[in-house]
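The protein record filed here:
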Amino acid sequence: MGDPSSLRFVPASKAATPIDWTRVPEATKKYLIEQYGYDFDKDEDKPLPATVEDLAKMFDGATFFGYLRSGILMALMDISKFGLQPTRPTLSGFTPAGPRFYMTYLDQVWFFLFAPGTRECIIGNSDNIIRNYDYMKIDDPEMHRKKVEAEAAEETAMAQAFDVRLEEDVSRGMAEVVKIANKLSGWTATTAQDSLEYAQYVEAIMTLPYSHPAHRGLMQDVLGPLFRKR
């Protein structure tokens, strides 16, 4: 199944941003429900999320960051383009930061930044979080719970501190250079479009036989660094 992502923070000023599903393509809505919207307890589909915060909660605990295939990337970009009301530029001529949410995946904090009225979304992540302890060595369940809660609080604080910088930098037009710099406010970042194109490339290569040079080359690119670190 893969490692899950855990929701950590949705800025209060953007949490209640409504999603107009009447303007979102039917195929996108169907994909989202099929992949993330089934309620196993009630054995029925969940309703489409009303707000950006509700959408983020739909991904909480699921395999999300680290597993962004072309389908979910296109769905998120469709939501941004059709489902979110465009924001007016500021007096400086730049568009304010759109709705966004933060999640943890492995040892990093990740974010997805919408660009209402466009598909120019941005995905980014922090450096690895350095822990000062190894909670796997803790045998006491209560101590383990407290350590997990402490980690979650630390990750939330990281997201909140970064979000202040992100909002300031986007308002100054820094989002427009992400494609070149691969950075935003000090964190690694990329456009959703670039991520989509890479996902489509990987998915196409994976349909080829393993003996195909392109398939073998991709596996070497992905797995090679893992073996070199040993």
